[in-house]
Design goal:
This protein has 147 residues and is mainly α. It folds into two domains: 1-81, Rna Polymerase Sigma Factor, Chain: A (Orthogonal Bundle); 92-147, Arc Repressor Mutant, subunit A, CATH 1.10.10.10. Helices cover 76% and strands 0% of the residues. The chain contains seven helices and no strands. It has helices at residues 2-6, 9-25, 37-57, 64-90, 95-106, 111-118, 122-142. α2 packs across α3 (37-57), α5 (95-106) crosses α7 (122-142) and α6 (111-118) packs across α7 (122-142). The longest helix has 27 residues, at 64-90.
């Protein structure tokens, strides 16, 4: 993630080192009831990459492409963190519901096609999708998701 956001090997390595250093220093503040360790670490990494991108943007002599990349650097960690949080939440719902959501929403497949592949009626797949989204919403609310 750090390399994708910063597009610089050296800065990405610095970001990863700083992420682990900050996590080590703040380990007593980690609360597993609020989020998974993975989500907590990516939140720290997001903050570190934004800090490094801002520090880089303060340097003179940048090209237009670098200015555009700085905005991407601010947005990419947020998108990555939301994706990882959603992936974590999907792990907390039933496999049939998760399959219905992933195939129809994330892979943008028609409900009828997913139902045929699973060997169930279309109405059953739509029901799984409906109740899966309800279950996912409850998991996200429980985790106090703000995405």
């Amino acid at each position: 993630m750090a390399h994708r956001v910063l597009n610089d090997d050296g800065l990405a390595q610095e970001a990863v080192q700083e992420t682990f250093l900050r996590a080590w220093r703040a380990a007593d503040r980690y609360d597993p009831k609020r989020s998974s360790l993975r989500t907590w670490m990516f939140a720290i990494a997001r903050n570190v990459t934004i800090d490094l991108a801002r520090a880089r943007s303060a340097r003179p002599g940048r090209t237009g492409q670098e200015v555009e990349h700085t905005q991407e650097a601010k947005d990419a960690p947020d998108e990555s963190l939301r994706a990882w949080e959603m992936e974590e939440a999907l792990r907390h719902i039933g496999p049939h519901h998760r399959h219905a959501i992933v195939e129809t929403y994330y892979r943008d497949r028609p409900c009828a096609e997913v139902a045929a592949e699973a060997g169930v009626p279309v109405g059953t797949m739509r029901s799984r999708l409906y109740y899966g989204l309800k279950a996912l919403r409850l998991v996200l609310e429980k985790r106090q998701w703000t995405g």
